[in-house]
């Protein structure tokens, strides 16, 4: 980057970060997710590194926190309250360790602590008496919030020993208090808090302590400001001493002898943090030995002897470039946001479902908007909200079309539905989606027939419906792009062997409305053959546990259609199996390895999908649960299995690998 360009960007970033910081620190009401702030800050740090003459004493890269609020007495911190350097991945943590060992040598130990997402405070005690409580403020000057802190029950007003000590910790709002506070706020028509951190900060910076008293705040203390004046040599000793004095110290603190142990601790909490009753946003890693800490010293903003590992963000900011419309196999037209690709929770996200037109209106989404996208765990990415603050004036309103983007038929909105539908039964997009569903893993499971191939088959008019798959011609297939002899033969073999599938796969694959894979299995178990099901009336269907009114109606009207009978007749003629081949009822499968057993799946499976594995186990009478406990009988561990595997070993639970599972579940 040219210097001139860099200078402009630096200016822009500082303004942006100051604005974000103002809303976060002063208003306790951030306008962007933390990850957005962190990323822009990293960008600025990089630029100031590359162009050192652009550094400035008032840059957000060297400033801690925000200025103290008016209305509170200002407090000078005797020992500055600094920020922490950040680590965003394993490499950053290893780099931190390397920098530390350059100073301390290899003989170094760390203490790992949960990074509580709250508000830093300092508590001063004289002769064992609580005399002053302050916020961090800008690190040098904070706000005197003693009267509010006195309402926090976990803060001792008098210690068990008459010492002079200044301790630091994080005030936070437990999840339950946060939820009930927001419930109350909504009942009163007030704006809810965005997250527990802001709720805690907002509560502590109330001028009226009665309000803070009602907020059920809590605190964990994580260090003494004046360690060097105490009779301790290590941070761990310091924490222990604080605990003896009556302070609340977080129990999930771990001394680690190697960086590998540190990384294990990080992994463990990355996976398990949702089980806590309060929010954490990372892990703080601190050098234990106080002498080594002194050797390491400080930068302008943070100690060199500690770093904060931040969990991968579940919310990120990106640009909504376009809204794409797709027609599903039931004709529903779904708008999808096309995003500038962005890393969220460890994966690249470039699409997010917008569900329907109403949602676009509700959220006020315009093309070109900066939006917050969220992806938590395995959940499909969603657009959380629009950052209207960041609009530049060239964003455009989105208009939903009135005609099907695939076949041009006028779209209709069925009664009581928000979705728009194309009602044309021969709509190419719908037929194509139906086929993609038919061959999918949960249905007929035909390998080699991915979305791309199906699109090709359609565009070459080799297929127009399900039955055509079984009439594909080898020579025609060979003419398709990227289809060699080998892949064609494999494909034809996969198609041929799918004819032998048990009934439930075919039933699910047909895409009968409201008949998911579970209902399909139930129906197959109950009726045994397609013929029996075709002849079933509503009453017979309703007699089955799990089959309700809606599903029963849908099944009956499905089989009444003439083209359905024609399709089934054709499939029969082509040699598809129409009988159920599995055990007649899970309950009858009493003599399998899985009957009555509780199984947990963990790690990455190579050959099976999680869903396959689960289905196989359930078909043999086993139950699949999410967490390992003393009730678990078998843990199936794939690659990179983490804490669940560890737990299983601890509890002496039988552990299998994927191959064992496959062997035990193959008929
Ligand atoms: N969303 C926004 O607009 C916005 C704006 C400004 C700042 N921020 C967020 O604020 C944070 C940056 O500010 P920061 O300077 O407070 O740094 P930081 O949060 O990265 O780390 C320092 C803080 O960690 C806290 N902490 C929690 N547990 C701790 C423990 N066990 N030991 C030591 N400290 C512990 C302390 O409060 C300490 O001050 C970032 O998370 C940033 O994303 C967000
Ligand atoms: Zn259509």
List keywords for this structure.
manganese; seven-stranded antiparallel β-sheet; 667 residues; 37% helix; Helix Hairpins; binds nicotinamide-adenine-dinucleotide; elongated; 5 domains; D-amino Acid Aminotransferase, Chain A, domain 1; DNA damage; five-stranded mixed β-sheet; zinc
Structure description:
- Helix content is 37%, strand content 19%.
- With 667 residues, it is α+β, with helices and mostly antiparallel strands.
- The chain is built from 24 helices and 22 strands.
- The protein has 5 domains: 3-54, Helix Hairpins (Orthogonal Bundle), CATH 1.10.287; 74-78 and 86-310, D-amino Acid Aminotransferase, Chain A, domain 1, CATH 3.30.470.30; 315-393 and 406-420, OB fold (Dihydrolipoamide Acetyltransferase, E2P); 428-573, Orthogonal Bundle (DNA polymerase, domain 1); 588-665, Rossmann fold.
- The strands form 5 sheets. Strands 12, 13, 14, 15, 16, 17 and 18 form a 7-stranded antiparallel sheet that branches.
- Helix 1 packs antiparallel against helix 2 (34-50) and helix 12 (428-439) crosses helix 13 (451-459).
- Bound molecules: nicotinamide-adenine-dinucleotide and zinc ion.
- Zinc ion binds next to loops.
- Nicotinamide-adenine-dinucleotide binds next to helix 1, helix 2 and strand 3.
- Its cofactor is Mg(2+); Mn(2+).
- InterPro entries: BRCT_dom (IPR001357), BRCT_dom_sf (IPR036420), DisA/LigA_HHH (IPR041663), DNA_ligase (IPR001679), DNA_ligase_AS (IPR018239), DNA_ligase_CS (IPR033136), DNAligase_adenylation (IPR013839), DNAligase_N (IPR013840).
- This is DNA ligase.
